[in-house]
Amino acid sequence: QVQLTESGGGSVRPGASLTLSCASSRNTWGSWAMGWFRQAPGKEREFVTAMHWNDGSTYYSDSVKGRFAISRDVDKNTVYLEMNSLKPEDTAVYYCAAGFPGDDVRPSGAYAYWGQGTQVTVSF
């Protein structure tokens, strides 16, 4: 069983930055991918970003492209989500996800492992 441990959420004002982290309990291998989803109240969980571990390829939703950046520390089996220019509409619970989604990294059902979620609130 893989455990994902998230940290870094909080409450900030619009325009601020936050960085989330997610550590995996086991070493990564093959076509492993890690990513982030978010779920706002009353809405479905949505894809934010993901990274394939073998080649570092990254993917972003249109709503965060240019503002958010996913990165990794291979030695620590950890993925980071740097969020810049935060907007009120970014308010949500952010979930780390990991697994073997293949080429299509966007469906939440493609990931077998999930973190507990961390709240990000952006408000005046």
In terms of topology, how is this protein built?
Layout: E1 4-7, E2 10-12, E3 18-24, E4 33-39, E5 46-52, E6 58-60, E7 68-73, E8 78-83, E9 92-99, E10 113-114, E11 118-122
Give a structural overview.
- The protein has 124 residues and is mostly beta strands.
- Helices cover 0% and strands 47% of the residues.
- It has no helices and 11 strands.
- The protein has strands spanning 4-7, 10-12, 18-24, 33-39, 46-52, 58-60, 68-73, 78-83, 92-99, 113-114, 118-122.
- The strands form 2 sheets. Strands 2, 4, 5, 6, 9, 10 and 11 form a 7-stranded mixed sheet that branches. A 4-stranded antiparallel sheet has the order 1-3-8-7, with no helix packed on it.
- It is globular and about 45 Å long.
- The model has no long low-confidence stretch (mean pLDDT 95).
Total beta-strand segments: 11
Share in helix = under 10%
What coarse outline follows from CA principal-axis ratios? globular
- List the secondary-structure elements in sequence, H or E: EEEEEEEEEEE
Assess the beta-strand content as a share of residues: over 45%
Summarize the structure.
The protein is an all-beta fold. It has no helices and 11 strands.
